[in-house]
C-alpha cells in the first residue's frame, strides 16, 4: 500500500472529498479512537483526587434506583406466590421493568467507578487533530484541548461535528505559536510522519522537525509528556525524528505495541519534558522498550523494505549531501536572500558534468 | 495564549495578540472545578481583562485586575472564569500582531495562523 505522505503534502491530500470520506469511515474512526485512548494511557496524567469530582449527583441516582428495586422486589415476591399455580409468563412486563432497572443501576455504578478512576482534567495539545476524532476521545475523558492541523477541510469537519476544543490552522513545521508552559500534555495521532517529507525545495524535513520539537518543548509545562502515534517508514526516519527531539531537550523512547503482529503493531513515540530520567513504558502484547537496533529489526521483518536495504549504510542522509543539486539550490537561495547576484536556476543547475579525469 | 510567530516581530510585542472579534458565540460547557483551578495560574489575568475589553465584553463580565486570593474557594469567581475562558467563542474576527501588524484571520471558529516562507526567515 502506498504511503499517502509520499503522494502529496497533507493540506492537498486531505481536501474536502478525502476529509469527508475520512470522517465517515467507521474502521478509521474505530482505529483512531483506540489509538487515542492508548495515547492517553501513555500520557500518564495524574489521578484526580476524589474530592474534586462531583460524586454527589451520581450517588443520589444510585440510591434512588436501589430503593426502587427494593420495593419492586417485595411486590414481585408477593405476585409470584399468587401466580405459582398457573403458567409462569416469562415475558411479563413486570420482569422487563425489573431488568431495565437493574441495567440502569449497573450503568450508574460503572459511571461512578469511572469517575473515581478519572484522571485530572488537563489541557492538552492535539497535533494534527484533523476532523476531531481524537479530540472527541479527549473530551469524553474530561480533558480540554486545542487542536491544530494543516488541512482546512479537515478542520471544517471538526467544527461541523461540534467538537469542544479550539481549532487552529497551522503548519507544525513552522513552529507552534503558544506561550511557555501552557499545556499539560500533547498527543499526535497519525500525524508525525507527514513532517518527514517536504515538497518545497527550500525546506528540509530535519529543520522543520527541529523547529517543531523546540517550540513544543517550550509550550509544554515541566514534567509532562508528548505521545506521537505514527507510521515510521524506515529506521533512518526514526533516527531523524529522535535526533530532532533530543536536540530540543526531550527524553524518552519508542513504545511498540504488539510487535509480533503486522496488523496490530503500533508505534508510539513517547517524549518526556523533564530533567529527571524516566522509564519509558512497556508496549502491549509482549513488546519491550526497544533500543535503536531492535527497532531496525522489527521494521525490516514485516516490510522487506527495499529502502531500508538501500540505507544500510549509517550515513546521516536527512541533510542534503554537500555539492548535490539540492544543496546547490539551497545555497543559491541563501545567497539571494543575502542580496548577492545569483544566476537563475535552470535544468542545468548542478547537473552531472562529463567525467574528464 | 497565542503569541505571534512572525520572525520580524520583537520579543516583547509577541504576546498578546490583539483580538478583533466580529461575531461571538456563547456556548455551554460542562463545568470542571479541578480544570479551572489548574489553569488560572497559567493565565495572565491583566491580558485576559484586556482581551475582554477588545471583544466589547468588559461591561457584561466584570473582572478585577487581579485574581482574588483563595480563588479555589470562591465559587462565583470560578464559575465566571469558566464562562469567560471556555464558553465564549469567536466565530469570525482576527488576531493582530502588535509588533508587525500582521493579521491572522479567524473564520468559522478556525484561526488561520499559517506563515508564509518569507515571514519565517
Automatic annotation (TrEMBL), chain A:
Compositional bias (Basic residues): 312-341
Taxonomy, superkingdom: Eukaryota
Pfam families: Methyltransf_11, WBS_methylT
Comp. bias (Acidic residues): 78-103
GO cellular component: cytoplasm; nucleolus
Domain Methyltransferase type span(s) in chain numbering: 125-221
GO BP field: rRNA (guanine-N7)-methylation
Annotated stretches, region: Disordered: 68-103, 309-357
Keywords on record: Cytoplasm, Methyltransferase, Nucleus, S-adenosyl-L-methionine, Transferase
Family label: Belongs to the class I-like SAM-binding methyltransferase superfamily. BUD23/WBSCR22 family.
Protein name: 18s rRNA (Guanine-n(7))-methyltransferase-related
Organism listed in the record: Anaeramoeba flamelloides
Source lineage: Eukaryota, Metamonada, Anaeramoebidae, Anaeramoeba
UniProtKB/TrEMBL annotation, chain B:
Entry-linked InterPro entries: Trm112, Trm112-like
Coiled-coil annotated spans: none
Gene3D superfamilies reported for this sequence: 2.20.25.10
Alphabetical list of PANTHER family matching this protein: MULTIFUNCTIONAL METHYLTRANSFERASE SUBUNIT TRM112-LIKE PROTEIN, UPF0315 PROTEIN-RELATED
Family to which the UniProt record says this protein belongs: Belongs to the TRM112 family.
Annotated protein name in UniProt: Multifunctional methyltransferase subunit trm112-like protein
